[in-house]
Design goal:
Layout (H helix, E strand, L loop, with lengths): L3 H12 L5 H12 L8 H30 L6 H29 L4 H15 L8 H30 L6 H38 L10 H12 L8 H35 L1
Length: 272
Amino acid sequence: MNTSLFSLANKHIHLENGHTVLDAFLKIVRNEGIKSMWSGLPPTLVMAVPATVIYFTCYDQLSALLRSKLGENESCIPIIAGFVARLGAVTVISQLELIRTKMQSKKFSYKELHQFVSKKVSEDGWISLWRGWIPTVLRDVPFSAMYWYNYEVLKKWLCAKSGLYEPTFMINFTSGALSGSFAAVATLPFDVVKTQKQTQLWTYESHKISMPLPMSTWTIMKNIVAKKGFAGLFTGLIPHLIKIAPACAIMISTYEFGKAFFQKQNARRQQY
């Protein structure tokens, strides 16, 4: 599933408080055309593929290792494995998310984007591409820990309620959607901060304004609360959930389906 259009609308709503999801979609289409709804799709795909491979592979391997050490029913395993796996994935792809935010905030050609990134690296070094890493970690790592814990708990509960030993596709789908929604609400304030920091960076660079000293995540949160109240930390909640819930549901259910399919294929091959 492509969630690029929801991500774009979400970023517009972060910047323009008070607009509904429909208002944001209509404004984007009217001003920039229908194709702009998928702006930033290539870097999104480039980011999503390695991130998903690293993330799920690390989670599965860490979970298996922890189960062998701590036991099958240890409840902290999803939290630890999800925490570590996401930390690694975020570190690898954080610079690509910064580029995606740039492409979604303003229409750039790939040549202009390359020139911008080259200039940024030559002036501030490669580390500048990881600006926004801290709020991204504060959003994604707790999200992952909460997501996997709730997913495993919900999956077992739904299996027990249905009298099943193995979860079905719909049980995985439902568990993924619910656990993703819970985690998305809890970590949204850090997403708001991350988006604001990255958008400010591109704004200063685009207008050739000297960048002020960077503010900490907590300082930005305090400023948002002072200006917009506590609700300001949850700006864009609806499009955020519209993006996260189906994405988590589809991702985990297809992953579990594919994993079960190939496990059965491998088991059959070993029999012959």
